[in-house]
Specification:
4-stranded mixed β-sheet, alpha/beta, 5-stranded mixed β-sheet
Length: about 450
């Protein structure tokens, strides 16, 4: 007799896969290093993806930042994702890729251990959640930090010896290239240097010279657009006279890598006639005197409290920030307006964003907030940024991610003029007509 047994389906147990992320870092912006970063990303994609019990939680990669710094954006983003429970394990090439600073390394690892996140260092074959992980990490990280300090000291010694011998440690500057330890003139760049000095002595300011070079399509020394600070550094650089002042700056320590202006804390070396000059010393001296004269004429004003919209308005055309400026500042009809910093510095050819009267910004913000008695503190509590995507448009972005677009209309010139302004314009026109008639009779 045939017997049939009904087999009830059993629940298929799902295997909880471990969420594994990778952290990669290269310490230089050179092409070879960028290739290395790309190779690391490709390697971890395959390495994690080929494990059936692992799930790729992300690859975090920092470029051109040293392991002794704590402001690595991808590293910080990885820590934030670990805190949010998105990652169970992090894989990285070695201790020196993770951090060279013992304090930074142990602080991060200990926090991750408390979160239950394991960090695996491939080169050292070390898991931080293992029983001997903490002791090994302390020892290995100390060695890594000492290695970083030793390398830094060797580099300092090498540079110091070069300075003592009257040799520069770099030749990256407009007009010269370092060839066999000596600065050699680059003729086409030397002409640009001469033009900058001549224009400045002819009365042009740094902003005007900057705009002229950008209009001419001449790239800045490191590429891209010229800035006033680059013009300033050219005008102050004594190397254009054939002399060199060495060790103007120094690195504070091997951990922070902070560059400090040398005000006498380190020995400086002045080398006369070390290379061929582009600017004669008399011209250079006249430029330094003119720089001092202009600086005395326009002294730096003390730091001011931020304006109502400072740091909030972003240009959708070029990505720059809007800044406050007084329009018709020399007139009694002067009014504050906000304009794109790119437009303000480089002109309409760089960014065509229109300026926005502050009165309109205040009125439209009042509409958005539904109040008229708000201040900057209230604004910052509600709004994260104000975007300007195009003409007569404002997009308010709230802290919760909501956005609200609003349009505005600049009042016509006729509507914005007061009776007093119209009377002044008529008087100016009559005065101008009388002057023209008088000059016509004279000639």
């Amino acid at each position: 007799m045939r017997k049939i047994v009904k087999l009830e389906p059993t629940a298929v147990q799902t295997v909880q896969r471990k969420r594994v992320a990778a952290y990669a870092r290269v310490s230089s912006g050179k092409d070879a290093m960028m290739h290395s970063l790309s190779a690391q990303i490709s390697y971890y994609n395959d390495y994690i993806g080929n494990r059936g019990d692992w799930e790729l939680a992300g690859i975090y990669a920092d470029e051109a930042l040293t392991g002794t710094k704590e402001d690595r954006p991808e590293f910080q983003r990885m820590l934030a994702d670990c805190r949010d429970g998105k990652i169970n394990m992090v894989i990285t090439k070695s201790l020196t890729r993770f951090a060279r600073n013992t304090v930074t390394l142990l602080s991060a690892v200990r926090e991750l251990r408390l979160l239950g996140v394991d960090v695996y260092f491939e080169k050292e074959n070390l898991h931080t959640l293992s029983s001997d992980g903490e002791l090994m990490l302390t020892l290995l990280a100390s060695f890594a930090q000492e290695e970083s300090r030793s390398a830094s000291e060797n580099q300092k010694w090498r540079i110091q010896k070069m300075f003592e011998e009257g040799r520069p440690n770099t030749g990256t500057m407009l007009g010269y290239r370092l060839v066999d330890g000596t600065l050699q003139i680059v003729p086409e760049e030397a002409e640009i240097v001469k033009m900058i000095f001549a224009d400045f002595l002819a009365g042009m300011g740094r902003n005007a010279i900057m705009k002229k070079l950008n209009r001419m399509g001449i790239p800045a020394p490191h590429g891209g657009q010229w800035g006033e600070n680059v013009i300033y550094s050219v005008l102050h650089n004594e190397k254009y006279t054939g002399d060199m002042l060495l060790q103007k700056t120094y690195i504070l320590d091997h951990i922070s890598k902070k560059k400090i202006v040398n005000h006498g804390e380190r020995t400086m070396y002045y080398v006369e006639n070390s290379h061929e000059a582009i600017i004669d010393k008399e011209t250079f001296s006249l430029v330094q005197q003119e720089l001092k004269r202009r600086a005395a004429q326009y002294p730096s004003s003390p730091a001011k409290a931020p304006y109502l919209f400072t740091g909030l308005i972003h240009c959708g055309l070029c990505g720059g920030h809007f800044r406050r400026k007084i329009v018709n500042a020399s007139s009694k009809y002067a009014k504050p307006a906000w304009m794109c910093s790119t437009f303000n510095r480089y002109g309409k050819q760089a960014c065509s964003a229109q300026q926005i009267p502050e009165s309109i910004l205040i009125a439209k913000t009042s509409e958005i907030l539904g109040a008229t008695d708000w201040n900057r503190e209230t604004l910052l509590e509600n709004i994260s940024e104000i975007q300007v995507p195009g003409p007569s448009r404002l997009v308010y972005v709230f802290h919760d991610g909501r956005t609200q677009e609003i349009t505005w209309q600049n009042p016509s010139r006729r509507e914005s003029w007061t009776g007093e302004m119209r009377q002044k314009a008529r008087e100016d026109a009559l005065k101008g007509a009388k002057e023209r008639r008088k000059n016509g009779k004279t000639h």
